Amino acid sequence: MLHLLRVTGNVQGLRVTDKGRYVVHEITKTVVESLPFPLSNPKTIENRTEYEEALKTSQKKEPIAHEERAPRVVV
After folding, report:
1. Largest Cα–Cα distance in the chain?
2. Residue 13 DSSP symbol
3. What does the alpha-carbon distance between residue 50 and residue 5 come to, in Å, rounded to a whole number?
4. Taking Cα atoms as reference points, which of 36, 35, 32, 25 lies closest to residue 1?
5. In whole angstroms, what is the distance from residue 15 CA to residue 52 CA?
6. Where do runs of H (alpha helix) occur along the chain?
7. Which of 63-70's residues contact partners 24+ apart within 8 Å by CB, and which partners?
8. Could you tell me the pTM of the whole model?
9. pLDDT per position as a tens digit, 8-33
10. Cα–Cα distance, 35 to 26 (Å, whole number)
């Protein structure tokens, strides 16, 4: 990531520029939002054990449908 920031001119000396911080923030936000579970508090997933078991069995057998293994988040 640092190399990419340097190549794009978002690092001056040893500091990341404001534009560079924005780029890093947007990339991090995109990655975190694409996760199938909340990163900050996985206990908010009401079917967490079912989800983990489904992942384990899907690695042993053929993959299960995406809808079946999607976690349900408690708001």
Report:
1. 51
2. T
3. 40
4. 25
5. 41
6. 2-7, 18-34, 48-60, 66-69
7. 70/36
8. 0.47
9. 999 998 899 999 999 999 998 888 88
10. 15
